[in-house]
Amino acid sequence: MADPEGRMLPEVTAESRAFWTGGFEQELRIYRCQACRSWIHPPVGACWRCRSRDVGPEVASGRAKVAAYSINHHPWFPAFPPPYVVAAVELDEDPSVRLTTCLVDCDVDQVEVGMAVEVVFDEQDDVALPLFRPVMA
Ligand SMILES: [Zn+2]
Known about the structure:
By secondary structure, this protein is mainly beta. 4% of the residues lie in helices and 43% in strands. The structure holds zinc ion.
């Protein structure tokens, strides 16, 4: 679904609601298994490691590292003037948990794998999109 500016907004489900709305309270909410303590993303109703259904959102630190990225030079969406960076970031809590996001407040020439980033939220209607920016040293 595209908003009037052409940006694609996520469809919020019961399981993803905490993820998409936590940003209104400045919280990055990631599902976590209460049985084995694994972090789980995207949010689903059971832990893929131990199969427990005792899963639910917890607040993560919002700190992550760039695992992979791509610099987009094509103006796909008016809300994202090129060039912009689409990245997979791995959470500091568990590097196997990756979010696909956009990097903001950064020079596209300075992006590198392993770069420390932190979450910022871009509020759009009823969702707060988790985006990431470089951590200032
Ligand atoms: Zn588990």
